[in-house]
């Protein structure tokens, strides 16, 4: 099943590139990394929802768990990464030394804050920041969070109103012809407002409740 999701994911990239190249001139066909993972993730969300229509028992549990983990690792965990990254840059900009201890302490603090009392935190988690390669590419990780947020919103729009596919094609066709936030607004999603994120978090909550009910 993982291979099926991989194909769906990569076909999202292919579809995005196809429509952008078809609709835009060479200079404007390339799209920003900010929107690059949206189409691929939309495909994955649509695939999950399609498979859940007929899945039962352990198969349904697997799909729901897969979806929960997708949202957790991209929306929740990557936001925590981004907050840690912001702390590191702001510390340097204030002219303060960024010591190993300071980074470990802050990372452990963020883990406790994000996961709360529901998770027993191993003290070694404080060192995890050192193995995250994305931190070498400044402010990359938050785009995972905005990407999954858009994907959940878009997938739900398409499933509730098939006419939204027309707007989605316009989004895919925009390439780099506008600012990324404006391209996303083609779908009626304003990432400067809290609503899209609330939709994504409610999706997580609803999926978790559904998993609990599965026999």
Uncertain segments = none
Class by alpha and beta content: mainly alpha
Q: What is the makeup of the main sheet? A: none
How would you state the average pLDDT, rounded? 95
Radius of gyration: 19 Å
- What is the ordering of alpha helices and beta strands? HHHHHHHHHH
Report the strand count: 0
What portion of residues belong to β-strands?
under 5%
Q: What is the tally of helical segments?
A: 10
Q: Please name the CATH topology.
A: Neurolysin, domain 3
Report on the architecture of this protein.
There is one protein chain. 71% of the residues lie in helices and 0% in strands. With 215 residues, it is mostly helical. It has a single domain, classed as Oligoendopeptidase f, C-terminal domain (Neurolysin, domain 3), CATH 1.10.1370. Helix 1 (2-23) crosses helix 4 and helix 5 (57-93) packs across helix 7 (142-160).
Task: Compose a concise summary of this entry.
The protein is an all-alpha fold and 215 residues long. The protein is 71% helix and 0% strand.
Index terms:
10 helices, 215 residues, Neurolysin, domain 3, single chain, mainly alpha
């Amino acid at each position: 099943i993982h291979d099926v999701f991989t194909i769906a994911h990569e076909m999202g990239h292919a579809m995005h590139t196809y429509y952008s190249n078809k609709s835009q001139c060479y200079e404007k066909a390339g799209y920003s990394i900010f929107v690059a993972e949206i189409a691929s993730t939309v495909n994955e969300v649509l695939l999950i929802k399609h498979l859940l229509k007929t899945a039962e028992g352990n198969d349904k549990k697997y799909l729901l768990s897969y979806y929960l983990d997708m949202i957790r690792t991209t929306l929740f965990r990557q936001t925590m990464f981004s907050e840690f990254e912001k702390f590191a840059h702001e510390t340097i900009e204030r002219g303060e030394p960024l010591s190993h201890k300071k980074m470990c302490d802050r990372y452990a603090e963020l883990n406790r804050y994000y996961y709360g009392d529901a998770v027993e935190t191993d003290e070694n988690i404080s060192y995890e920041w050192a193995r995250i390669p994305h931190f070498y590419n400044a402010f990359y990780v938050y785009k995972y969070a905005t990407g999954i947020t858009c994907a959940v919103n878009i997938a739900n729009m398409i499933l509730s109103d098939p006419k939204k596919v027309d707007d989605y094609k316009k989004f895919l066709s925009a390439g780099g012809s506008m600012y990324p936030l404006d391209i996303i607004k083609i779908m009626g999603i304003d990432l400067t407002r809290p609503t899209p994120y609330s939709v994504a978090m409610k999706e997580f909550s609803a999926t978790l409740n559904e998993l609990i009910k599965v026999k």
